[in-house]
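Side project, low priority. Logging it here so it doesn't get lost.
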Amino acid sequence: MKNKKQLIGVVTCLCIAVLLLAGAVLQNTPAEKQETVKEVIRDAVLHEENQISLLGIKAVNPAFISAIVVTVILLIAAILIRLFVIPRFTYTPGKLQLCLEQIVGLFDGMAKSNSPHRNGFLGVYIFGAGIYIFAGTLFELFGLQGVTTEGMSIALPAPLSDINAAIALGCLSYLVILSGGIAGNGLRGIGKTLKDFSLPISMSFRLFGALLSGLLVTELVYYYIQLSFVLPVLVAVMFTLLHALIQTYVLAMLTALFYGEVSEPQKKNHSKAIA
């Protein structure tokens, strides 16, 4: 009896979905748009419009609010895990303990394999940066709303969809690499790091470009009403998950790779004295 009711429910939902899609295709009219794609992309880069008031002090772009929210959530989660989860770790790990150990082990192994000489701080940094990128990218899926200075309601974007945030994270990663060069080789390490002067630029724009491309694809899907029923959900989830995983791995790997390269001690050639 239950299986029959479930089957009827599934068939009903499929019929409704087919009717909606058929109606959209037969209508063949563009969806109502308040902004063009060009305006959306321009605002995503420059943030001239759709700003949010920060405690009545200053109008800021929505990504800045997202960055604050994500940072607070991660800090609270870290405190709760440290106080209530880690003290209960056992030799036979449960699901949560196993998941945490796998995540930490992934970044720790990445640091040790790419920088065998110095990897203590490196492992901590790429773990923190990776978790921030992953959580910040997935944040936009929750669709938390904010009110702009003009009274409009908008969904808070991913923190790294702001080019300033992407540049800040790229430059911070470069400074971490520079610190590894100084710790490993002193002034020579500075020279080795400064040779890759384009590294922070490439890291920054790789992060920003990936998230901006997801925004562009989603906006293009929404452009016509024929595609604006089910497909945007699939596209948004797929692109967000792919960006979260790929960008986390890429930045962590690049940081670990260059850190290990500049911090590797240089071999000194000792000439033997000839008697």
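Brief comment: The CA atoms of residues 207 and 247 lie 7 Å apart.
Revisit when time allows.
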